[in-house]
Amino acid sequence: MDLNFTPEEEAFRERVVRFLKDKLPARLSDKVRNSLHLTRDDIVEWHAILNGQGWLANHWPEQYGGPGWSAVQKFIFENECALACAPRILPFGVNMLGPVLIKYGSEAQKRYWLPRILNGDDWWCQGYSEPGSGSDLASVRTTAVRGIDAQGEHYIVNGQKTWTTLGQHANMIFCLVRTASDVRQQEGISFLLVDMNTPGVEVRPIITLDGDHEINEVFFTDVRVPAANLVGEENKGWTYAKYLLTYERTNIAGVGFSVAALERLKAVAAKRTRNGRPLAEDASFAARVARVEIDLENMKTTNLRVIAAVAGGGVPGAESSMLKIRGTEIRQEITSLMRRAMGPYAQPFIEEALHEGYDQPPVGLGDAASAAALYFNNRKLSIFGGSNEIQKNIISKMILGL
Ligand SMILES: Cc1cc2nc3c(=O)[nH]c(=O)nc-3n(C[C@H](O)[C@H](O)[C@H](O)COP(=O)(O)OP(=O)(O)OC[C@H]3O[C@@H](n4cnc5c(N)ncnc54)[C@H](O)[C@@H]3O)c2cc1C
Q: What is the pLDDT of residues 113-153, one digit of tens each?
């Protein structure tokens, strides 16, 4: 297998690098480089820039506004964006709901919702998990009861979702809801699009260990949803949910992110000294860095395989679970090594240091302020998108048939 880029791919890479140099605002890349919090406006701004170039929904078919890239081009784009410290594309609309609508949505849904995702008209969030229904997702208990009245066919939704990432910014949520209870759990779930401005929807914040407001609880009390917002068939939502999750997992692996973070770690290790010598020359530290670099190189190949499978019309299966596990382990290891590299400077956690305009203490270590917060924040990676233990169960079932 030849893993080198062809001259055409190399030319594409240069085009991406030029675009990032010209169009990525320094204010945004500075924030990403220094691990500062991105606001809603920051993310909307970056989406609009990518959309203006036709590069936002780079996994979508051309007929729906995708750029028609090959698997390798997508890989190059994601890597270069990460290396340039571009904000990540918010996955909920573009990478999760988009592919589901394209595969299972009605023509009317595609015509209405897909352009709105591209144009940033809606901010989507994901309403899968509930208290007691995380790993055991098929047990969701939020109900949607179908009815009809003078205003038309509709569902009345009652229940609670939790861990809803960035739900505080969202105006739309895609939900797994129970539409039948007298059947096998998986056969009574539907996939519903809910306007969060409807009366009866309430969003409450959950503050995480790193002091951040990233996740929420969402409550539904007699929320009326037009029946036209059902995706696909009633009670077939489990199939769509699983399809979406494979995209989510592949995305969480974050190869590009790790490539950029590893470069940064190495730069810090070359500067920081321990016992009078650069940390990079410390045998045990260097061995851990080398180990994670080898794992990352292997991951890149697996990532290309998964993207190629999707490009060929396939659906990522067990490979996306493999990517999720290994990708998140690598990301966690890099943040752990960065925290170690900072030594005592990583110790104090200063929430304000993650916001724009904070005057960093003069420790001479650009990454110190965020090292602990990033370490804590990245613990989530092995939990969300289906925990890594659950991914191992999936792999053993799909590959080993256990
Ligand atoms: C930061 C963050 C953001 C999130 N964002 C969203 C979001 O936007 N939308 C959304 O819907 N959800 C979101 N989630 C929820 C996430 O998908 C769930 O947390 C995850 O699926 C685990 O479910 P749980 O929290 O209920 O844990 P549980 O299912 O209770 O699991 C607890 C532990 O038991 C282990 N375990 C459970 N069952 C098994 C088994 N059969 N075999 C082996 N081990 C097992 C798990 O691996 C885990 O370690 C988010 C979670 C986090 C932490």
A: 999 999 999 999 999 999 999 999 999 999 999 999 999 99
Q: Ligand 1 centre and the CA of 108: distance in Å?
A: 34
Residue 312 lies inside a defined structural domain of this protein: yes
Distance CA 6, CA 100 (A): 32
CATH of the domain at 99: 1.10.540.10
Q: Going by DSSP bridges, is the β-strand pair 143-149/189-195 parallel, antiparallel, or unpaired?
A: unpaired
Please give the residue range of the domain that contains residue 99.
Answer: 7-119
Q: Which residue has the tokens 């940390």?
A: 279
For ligand 1, say whether the CB of 166 is within 6 Å of any of its atoms.
Answer: no
Residue ranges of the alpha helices (H) in 282-387?
283-311, 318-342, 368-377
* Model pLDDT for residues 190-220, shown as the tens digit of each residue: 999 999 999 999 999 999 877 789 999 999 9
Name which of 113, 117, 89, 139 is nearest 192 in CA terms. 113
Question: Which residue has a Cα nearest atom 35 of ligand 1?
Answer: 389
Domain count for the chain = 3
